[in-house]
Amino acid sequence: MNKILEASFLILCLQVDWVSGQQKEKSDQEQVKQSPQPLTVQEGEIPILNCSYEKSAFDYFPWYRQYPGKGPAFLIAIHSVVNEMKDGRLTIFLNKSAKQLSLHIATSQPGDSATYFCAAEQTSGSKMIFGKGTQLTVQLEVKDPNPTVYQLRSPQSSDTSVCLFTDFDSNQVNMEKIMGSEGSTVHKTNSTVLNMEILGSKSNGIVTWGNTSDAGCEYTFNETIPFASSLEISCNAKLVEKSFETDINLNSQNLSVIVFRILLLKVVGFNLLMTLRLWSS
Prior knowledge:
Layout: H1 2-31, E1 32-35, E2 38-42, E3 48-53, E4 60-66, E5 73-79, E6 84-87, E7 90-95, E8 100-105, E9 114-120, E10 129-130, E11 134-139, E12 148-153, E13 161-166, E14 186-188, E15 192-196, E16 201-210, H2 217-221, E17 224-226, E18 232-234, E19 238-243, H3 248-280
Protein name: LOC785621 protein
InterPro entries: Ig-like_dom, Ig-like_dom_sf, Ig-like_fold, Ig_sub, Ig_V-set, TCR_alpha_C, TCR_variable_domain
Organism: Bos taurus
């Protein structure tokens, strides 16, 4: 009976500790608040990430950036003795009387897309308090988008297909909706920025592959796509199909190179043999 009471008391203590820990964590996060939670801007714009804090004793305010799948990395910080701190494209403005600060990112780029954490600390020894974070998304600005789908299909099998989507506007299509025909499995990469320096332009790109003959190629653009203006505009993309067949000209060139190498080896071998015979005589 005593053992049961001891076990029950231990469980109760653990629950109390867990609840108090959760309340303390929530209280800490309420001391540092960030807004807006999600923020989406176009490439080149200046995103403003706001942060407010409760304690007047806070005198050190760092910002951290976290990319998906990675840990937070220090970005920039400001002390309460100054009102502004600049480092490259990053600038922090601090209003100590209002207990507010903001992070400005000049000439934003798609690579700036990440989660940004504001933190506050009292340098006399208190622990650092973090906000919940602001998820920033910088969308690529594509001039005169001309969505195109390149489809690769194996002539030996109708169960495999790979598609490349290019030159679509960031607001033009929701890549989360890519899907193949019913019963098929479609995989996709994250959207990638294609920097075509020769043409002086940029483009969005994404690759999908699946176990069907279309792998979501036709299903993506042959439907009504909601644009950023919430208007339903039909997107008529070009569909370019290419098979996995080898190039005949490339094969003939490879064959010519192989024949040339064989002839070269024969000539070298013949010269070596004649030289050895002369030396032996």
